[in-house]
């Protein structure tokens, strides 16, 4: 997740906390003038933060060049007693699939969707075979 998403989420959560605390102060104190002096600015600040947080962009647009140049990290996956692998398929045209062998860290790109079977061409291990 991007830092913009976390920033937006933090602002919205802070807003709801301010509104809840402000409402709780008013309800628990029975409406004294001091409680209103504290709770009303806190609640109004929460409403202001909520409007700012909800008005922020939830996603930044990513350039098509950056999407096309993406590759998975060539890292080794934990050995779980069987062949581990990672498959990523693009959603936009052209449809391409990357297959990461967890044993050797080799990445292979295949045109189209996930094939019905695949053997790593680097370490010669069968990663999967559909029935």
Provide a descriptive summary of the structure in words:
The chain has 131 residues and is α+β, with helices and mostly antiparallel strands. It folds into two domains: 3-55, no CATH class; 64-129, no CATH class. Helix content is 42%, strand content 18%. The chain has helices at residues 3-29, 33-55, 64-68, and strands spanning 85-89, 96-101, 107-111, 117-119, 126-129. The protein has a three-stranded antiparallel sheet with strand order 1-2-3, with no helix packed on it. A two-stranded antiparallel sheet has the order 4-5. Strand 2 (96-101) and strand 3 form a beta hairpin. Helix 1 packs antiparallel against helix 2 (33-55). It is elongated, with a radius of gyration of 26 Å.
Spell out the blueprint of helices and strands.
Elements: H1 3-29, H2 33-55, H3 64-68, E1 85-89, E2 96-101, E3 107-111, E4 117-119, E5 126-129
Brief description of this entry?
The protein is α+β, with helices and mostly antiparallel strands. Helices cover 42% and strands 18% of the residues. The chain has a three-stranded antiparallel sheet with strand order 1-2-3, with no helix packed on it.
Structure keywords:
two-stranded antiparallel sheet; elongated; 3-stranded antiparallel sheet; 131 residues; single chain; 3 helices; alpha+beta
Give the strand order, joined by hyphens, for the main sheet.
Answer: 1-2-3
Helix content: 40-55%
- The average pLDDT score comes to 83
* Estimated structural class: alpha+beta
Q: What is the string of SSEs from the N terminus onward?
A: HHHEEEEE
Q: From the alpha-carbon coordinates, what is the Rg to the nearest angstrom?
A: 26 Å
Largest sheet, strands/sense/barrel: 3 strands, antiparallel
SS element count, helices: 3
The overall number of domains is: 2
Number of E-state strands: 5
Q: Which outline best applies?
A: elongated
Strand-residue proportion: 15-25%
Instruction: Note poorly predicted spans.
Output: none
